[in-house]
Amino acid sequence: MDQHEIDLLERHISTDTELKSLWEDHILYGKQVEKLENKIFRTPTEEQTLKQLKKQKLEGKTKLMSILDRLKEFEK
Predict the structure, then answer these.
(1) Can you give the pLDDT at residue 2?
(2) What is the reported pTM?
C-alpha cells in the first residue's frame, strides 16, 4: 500500500464503517500471521491456521483496495 492510499484511508476511515472494519481486520490478521511465522516450530493445526489467516488477510486486502480504488476515482 503506497502513501497516497494510506492518506486516503486515514481521511475516510472515520466515516466509512466497512473501510474501518476491513483495516482493523487487516492489522489483526497481520499480527496473528507474524506471531505464527515467528515460531520456530508450528504444529499441523498452527500451519492450517496460518494458511487460513493469510487467506483471510488477502481477501480483506482485496476488498480494502477495491474501496480505495473507488475513492480514488471519486476524488478525481
Answers:
(1) 87
(2) 0.86
